[in-house]
Design a protein that fits this description.
This protein has 213 residues and is of the alpha/beta class. It has one domain (17-211): Leucine-rich repeat, LRR (right-handed beta-alpha superhelix) (Alpha-Beta Horseshoe), CATH 3.80.10. 13% of the residues lie in helices and 19% in strands. It is built from two helices and 13 strands, in the order ααβββββββββββββ. It is globular and about 55 Å long.
């Protein structure tokens, strides 16, 4: 009898890790896949309904507590993916890491990214993203690294990013950003790296930056 109970418990744990109770994560990832037009290495071929999403290429799931079986990281770097980023990515409630550098992703950065309240690391560098940097990124209060370098982003640097008290690394070089450098960035007391070169920024370096230790 004890063996049967143990086996049943193990089966339940496997079901939980399989993401059976997380249809929102599954739908979000399938929406992401549907907007990928070219996948030269067939990296997303493992993204099938008959396989646990926690076993899909580039997907990492949590292993304990409320994150158990939920997507916490999406790492699809250097795969040559060509497409756009689905707004449904904002439904990955427990996502902490969004890592897409060295692909051919176009379109815009969806403002729905602001719903990822546990996001800590986002790297969309070396793609073909257009449009502006969403000011709504300021809603991701736990983020420590924002890298959107070497895209085709335009517009200004959102002053609202100055509220991200834990932000340590900002890489926005190699775009078409214009306007002044917001003095609000001087509020980022945890800032260690700020790369803004190869843009068309104007004005002066804010003197408040002298307070960044």
């Amino acid at each position: 009898m004890l063996l049967l109970i143990s086996a049943a418990t193990t089966a339940a744990q496997r079901a939980s890790m399989a993401g059976v109770s997380t249809p929102s994560d599954h739908l979000a990832l399938m929406s992401f896949k549907s907007l990928i037009q070219i996948d030269p290495s067939s990296a997303l071929s493992s993204w099938r309904s008959n396989q646990s999403l926690c076993q899909w290429h580039g997907v990492t799931c949590g292993t304990r507590g409320r994150r158990r079986g939920r997507v916490v990281a999406l790492d699809l770097a250097n795969l040559g993916l060509h497409g756009t980023i689905s707004p449904a990515i904002g439904n990955l409630t427990y996502l902490r890491k969004l890592h897409f550098p060295m692909n051919r992703m176009g379109g815009t950065i969806p403002p729905e990214i602001s719903r990822l309240l546990e996001l800590r690391y986002v790297n969309l560098s070396f793609n073909s993203l257009e449009g502006s940097i969403p000011g709504s990124l300021s809603e991701c209060k736990q983020v420590v690294n924002i890298s959107v370098a070497f895209n085709h982003l335009s517009g200004g640097i959102p002053p609202a990013m100055g509220v991200l008290s834990g932000l340590r690394i900002v890489q926005m070089q190699g775009n078409m950003l214009d306007g002044p450098i917001p003095g609000a960035l001087a509020s980022l007391q945890s800032l260690e790296v700020l790369h803004l070169y190869n843009n068309t920024l104007t004005g002066n370096i804010p003197p408040e930056f002298g307070n960044l230790t």
